[in-house]
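Quick one: structure tokens for this chain, please?
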Amino acid sequence: MRFVVVGGTGTVGSRVAQALRDRGAAVRVLTRSPEKARAMPAGVEAVVADLRQPSTLVAAFAGASGAFMATPLSPTETQEGLAAVAAAAAGGVERFVYMSAAGIDAYPHIPHFASKAPIEQAVRAAGMRYTLLRPNDFFQNDLRYQSPIVQHGLYPQPVGAVGVSRVDVRDIADAAATALTERGHEGRTYTLGGPDELTGDEIARVYRRHLRQPVRYAGDDLDAWSAQARTALPEWLVENLRIMYEHMCKHGMLATDAELAAARRLIGHGLRTFEEFVAEVASGWRS
């Protein structure tokens, strides 16, 4: 079997590519970067294509039996995702797994989620055997916060005090690989979260415990967060994420027991905990 991974050089897609390779599948990674294409590990085929240029996508899906797609955060995310779905269906792809977002039905006012809803609809209508994965916030998003956590003792992501079922991207990758290579997941939608109900204060406590240094939660002040985020992110993304964080702070984003049980059955093992993730990264950060 040959599988295409759209977004295969990203945080989740690279893990999906590895999980598929571990199962003995042939993997083709779609990237718009010739440099990244040349840097693919041995055994991974790379094809240079651009979701913003649909004519470049035809060859990417040729001969593939299945595909995984994670769409990039961009103002044109919806259009890019729709182009990939159309190209995959036209190319004869039989199985398609799309990584959407937890809460997409319940919170359509959040732009980060709303951009994915039309892509989900297109996947359902394309005639392929599909599975939709809706993960919560990734543990691995914290890797970008190493400096504020370690150097300044601050956890900056404003997740609030209600609780978020954050998830390890390795569990997402395992879920995607299972959905692509095993039967029984066609037409299914899975919400993927972790077993912990994580608040900002609890996240800071876990880092404090494993780093063995003071770490505190920076708080729910979204004006302060936005001002800091604008130094690194484009304005449209800051505003989109602010709406998501405002929801998290007020309402949380927790998976149900039924959703977590279904995720465990799909993944085939227990859900990784945030404590385990931090224990892994803290040793490297301390050194």
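The mean pLDDT is 95.
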